[in-house]
Protein backbone atom coordinates (compact mmCIF):
# COMPACT_ATOMS: atom_id res chain seq x y z
CA UNK A 1 0.00 0.00 0.00
CA UNK A 2 1.36 3.40 -1.01
CA UNK A 3 1.13 6.07 1.68
CA UNK A 4 0.74 9.79 1.06
CA UNK A 5 1.30 12.74 3.34
CA UNK A 6 -1.78 14.71 4.34
CA UNK A 7 -1.84 18.10 6.01
CA UNK A 8 -4.79 18.82 8.28
CA UNK A 9 -5.76 21.84 10.32
CA UNK A 10 -7.53 20.90 13.53
CA UNK A 11 -8.19 22.53 16.86
CA UNK A 12 -5.05 22.40 19.01
CA UNK A 13 -6.80 21.05 22.12
CA UNK A 14 -8.62 18.43 20.08
CA UNK A 15 -5.33 17.21 18.63
CA UNK A 16 -3.62 17.13 22.04
CA UNK A 17 -6.47 15.11 23.56
CA UNK A 18 -6.54 12.74 20.60
CA UNK A 19 -2.79 12.13 20.82
CA UNK A 20 -2.98 11.38 24.54
CA UNK A 21 -5.78 8.87 24.00
CA UNK A 22 -4.14 7.31 20.97
CA UNK A 23 -0.76 6.92 22.69
CA UNK A 24 -2.57 5.16 25.53
CA UNK A 25 -3.99 2.72 22.98
CA UNK A 26 -0.66 2.33 21.18
CA UNK A 27 -1.97 4.00 18.01
CA UNK A 28 -0.90 6.96 15.91
CA UNK A 29 -2.88 9.92 14.61
CA UNK A 30 -2.20 8.65 11.08
CA UNK A 31 -3.78 5.27 11.85
CA UNK A 32 -6.79 6.96 13.46
CA UNK A 33 -7.31 9.14 10.38
CA UNK A 34 -6.95 6.12 8.08
CA UNK A 35 -9.52 4.23 10.17
CA UNK A 36 -11.88 7.20 9.97
CA UNK A 37 -11.52 7.40 6.19
CA UNK A 38 -12.17 3.66 5.90
CA UNK A 39 -15.30 4.00 8.03
CA UNK A 40 -16.61 6.76 5.76
CA UNK A 41 -15.98 4.76 2.62
CA UNK A 42 -16.45 6.02 -0.91
CA UNK A 43 -20.23 6.03 -0.96
CA UNK A 44 -20.43 9.70 0.08
CA UNK A 45 -18.63 10.68 -3.11
CA UNK A 46 -21.06 8.71 -5.24
CA UNK A 47 -24.04 10.15 -3.33
CA UNK A 48 -22.78 13.69 -3.86
CA UNK A 49 -22.14 13.06 -7.56
CA UNK A 50 -25.68 11.69 -7.99
CA UNK A 51 -27.11 14.69 -6.17
CA UNK A 52 -25.40 17.07 -8.60
CA UNK A 53 -25.86 14.90 -11.67
CA UNK A 54 -22.13 14.37 -12.13
CA UNK A 55 -20.77 11.19 -13.70
CA UNK A 56 -17.74 9.91 -11.84
CA UNK A 57 -14.79 8.58 -13.75
CA UNK A 58 -11.67 7.45 -11.93
CA UNK A 59 -8.43 7.94 -13.82
CA UNK A 60 -4.92 6.73 -13.16
CA UNK A 61 -2.08 8.97 -12.07
CA UNK A 62 -0.42 8.25 -15.42
CA UNK A 63 -3.46 9.66 -17.23
CA UNK A 64 -3.42 12.77 -15.05
CA UNK A 65 0.24 13.36 -15.94
CA UNK A 66 -0.45 12.71 -19.63
CA UNK A 67 -3.34 15.23 -19.67
CA UNK A 68 -1.46 17.98 -17.79
CA UNK A 69 0.25 19.24 -20.90
CA UNK A 70 -3.06 19.57 -22.73
CA UNK A 71 -4.70 21.87 -20.20
CA UNK A 72 -3.83 25.45 -21.02
CA UNK A 73 -5.42 28.31 -19.14
CA UNK A 74 -3.01 31.01 -20.17
CA UNK A 75 -2.29 31.70 -16.51
CA UNK A 76 1.10 31.60 -14.86
CA UNK A 77 0.19 29.67 -11.71
CA UNK A 78 3.39 30.68 -9.91
CA UNK A 79 2.66 34.36 -10.50
CA UNK A 80 -1.02 34.03 -9.56
CA UNK A 81 -0.17 32.18 -6.34
CA UNK A 82 2.48 34.76 -5.40
CA UNK A 83 -0.03 37.59 -5.97
CA UNK A 84 -2.63 35.82 -3.85
CA UNK A 85 -0.14 35.34 -1.02
CA UNK A 86 0.96 38.97 -1.19
CA UNK A 87 -2.67 40.18 -1.14
CA UNK A 88 -3.40 37.94 1.85
CA UNK A 89 -0.33 39.23 3.70
CA UNK A 90 -1.43 42.84 3.09
CA UNK A 91 -4.92 42.08 4.42
CA UNK A 92 -3.56 40.35 7.52
CA UNK A 93 -0.97 43.01 8.27
CA UNK A 94 -3.35 45.85 7.38
CA UNK A 95 -1.09 47.42 4.72
Give a verbal description of the structure.
With 95 residues, the protein is mainly alpha-helical. The chain has one domain. 64% of the residues lie in helices and 0% in strands. It contains 5 helices and no strands. The N and C termini lie far apart (48 Å). The model has no long low-confidence stretch (mean pLDDT 83).
Keywords:
95 residues; mainly alpha; extended
What is Rg?
20 Å
Shape descriptor reads extended
What count of domains describes the coordinates?
Answer: 1
**Which secondary-structure class do the elements indicate?**
mainly alpha
Enumerate the spans where pLDDT stays under 50 for 5 or more consecutive residues.
none
Strand and helix order: HHHHH
Instruction: Tell me the span between the first and last alpha carbons.
Output: 48 Å
Tell me about the largest β-sheet: none
What is the arithmetic mean of pLDDT?
Answer: 83
Share of β-strand residues: under 5%
Considering DSSP H and I runs of 4 or more, what fraction of the residues is helical?
55-70%
Count of alpha/pi helices: 5
How many β-strand stretches?
A: 0
Write a brief caption for the model.
The chain is mostly helical.
Helix and strand topology:
Layout: H1 12-25, H2 29-40, H3 43-52, H4 61-68, H5 77-93
